[in-house]
Write a structure and sequence with these properties.
It is a single chain. The protein has about 375 residues and is α+β, with helices and mostly antiparallel strands. It is built from eight helices and 14 strands. It folds into two domains: about 1-280, no CATH class; about 300-360, OB fold (Dihydrolipoamide Acetyltransferase, E2P). It is about 30% helix and about 20% strand. A five-stranded antiparallel β-sheet has the order 2-4-7-1-9. The chain has a five-stranded mixed β-barrel with strand order 10-11-12-14-13. Strand 13 (about 340-350) and strand 14 form a beta hairpin. Helix 2 (about 20-25) packs antiparallel against helix 3 (about 40-50) and helix 5 crosses helix 8. It is elongated.
Amino acid sequence: MRDFIFDLKDQRGRRDPHPGLLLHRYRWEKMTDEGGDTEEKQAILQATIDAAKNGEILALYRAAFERWSRSLPCDPTPIDLATTGRLITGLGSENVLEAGIRLHHIYGVPIIPGSALKGLAAHYCDQIWGERGVDTPSEKASRFRGARRAVEEKNQRAEPPGDYHQLLFGTTDDSGAIIFHDAWYIPGSSPDPLVRDVMTPHHQKWNDVKEPIAPTDFDSPIPVAFLSVSGTFRVAVSWHGQVSDKAKPWTELALSLLCDALKYWGVGGKTSSGYGRLAVPPTPPPPPPPKKRASGDKAKVTIVATRPKGGFEVQDIEPGRAPGSLTVGTPPLGTNTSLGAIVDVLVHVEDLKRPQYKWPQAPRK
């Protein structure tokens, strides 16, 4: 089987391959060089990045994403969260390279498992929302880390989760009343869904279980290339308990809790280095108002309807213009005046709320 894969090396990148298969199965030669990554590993990473941008794969995934979005509950409304930097899930998963990544099994695009989101929300609820006070999330996190260390040092047992925590997240015997759905990558939200990244561990011999060697300032960094994610994900939760009029506030609370956890703590690997943060994308600024035009200026409009007393209802093709009317003059000979046609006209009355247009006069002979 491996020999067959070896024979396909020269075709890598030409046959629109699956990104996950490339990254996790498609190693052509042994990579054991010490002190850095081999050319083969770099080729695999680049081929995976290119495959994730393949038009045919993205077209198929877009159709699947739209079908999946229609199946999500609308109460509460799913929310779209964008990476504020980079994100990496499945970093320690088994694969042919040193570092892995979690990709959708069928489509090969990035995905955040619902189990990871549920675990993050449950831990954040226990550590942050479990205490009363008006501290900021970062102040609470620092205080709770100190309290947790004190408990561990005294070898004390943590308190069991309360009723509200069990309702949201369940126990080892019960799944709880809230479903945390997988977060799917929104197609087109980033020009490069997968991006090349690198980590530089300095003291690998110190992590040797059998013969650890204490780190020194003379240890050389060894770069390890891996892939991380950039883009926007659709996050959703839904009610899974008994029918109740309190289902809506509980699901809204769970979604709010999850959004806070993603914003302040992050999900996936290397969160201590700033990875994994997700937040609501900033609202783009409104477009500048269109420039005022004088009577007789040229314009292009789309015919959207006919008027009962003659003329047309039109929409200027320039963004930001209000709908207007085209009633003055007659169309030049041979002009297409069907609905949806784009025609050349002149400004008759410039009104930001209701502009009026006129047909250009035919040239005199």
